[in-house]
């Protein structure tokens, strides 16, 4: 599979991040979701300088997402949404990120394949929150 387009852009940006926005709107209404997203952007913008972390001074508010933007945002997104979404949403992202980090490894072993399968199973288990709330398309992912 094309890791950049299918995983990073497709699953992360086009599905999961979008679904979080839809979930927040459904849960808190348009005004409440706007406040939550502003807080998420504030948290992303507040990430201190650190080797290996990219800064996003405007949060997620950039118009053209490159693959590098998405991969960098993946490193700071989970703590940014903490407290705004239920645990199953957090677990969905954790399993997805784990899956991505495993497939980016240079060497894949039998143990790695087992870890990959476990992450994939957890991802499918926890992403059901998006379907149960009517936010995610059942056929997507």
Chart the SSEs and their pairings.
Blueprint: H1 3-45, H2 67-81, H3 87-103, H4 110-126, H5 128-132
Helix pairs in contact: 1-2, 1-3, 3-4
Verbal overview:
It is a single chain. With 141 residues, the chain is mainly alpha-helical. It has one domain (3-132). Helices cover 69% and strands 0% of the residues. It is built from five helices and no strands. The two termini are 13 Å apart. The model has no long low-confidence stretch (mean pLDDT 88).
Overall geometric form = globular
Number of domains: 1
Structural class: mainly alpha
Order of helices and strands: HHHHH
Computed CA radius of gyration, to the nearest angstrom: 15 Å
Major sheet details: none
Identify low-pLDDT runs: none
Q: How many strands in all? A: 0
Number of helices: 5
Average residue pLDDT: 88
* Residues in β-strands, percent: under 5%
What is the CA-CA span between the terminal residues? Answer: 13 Å
Question: Which short descriptors sum up this protein?
Answer:
0% strand; mainly alpha; Plavaka; 141 residues; Unplaced genomic scaffold PAXINscaffold_21, whole genome shotgun sequence; 5 helices; 69% helix
Q: Summed up, what is this model?
A:
This protein has 141 residues and is mostly helical. Helices cover 69% and strands 0% of the residues.
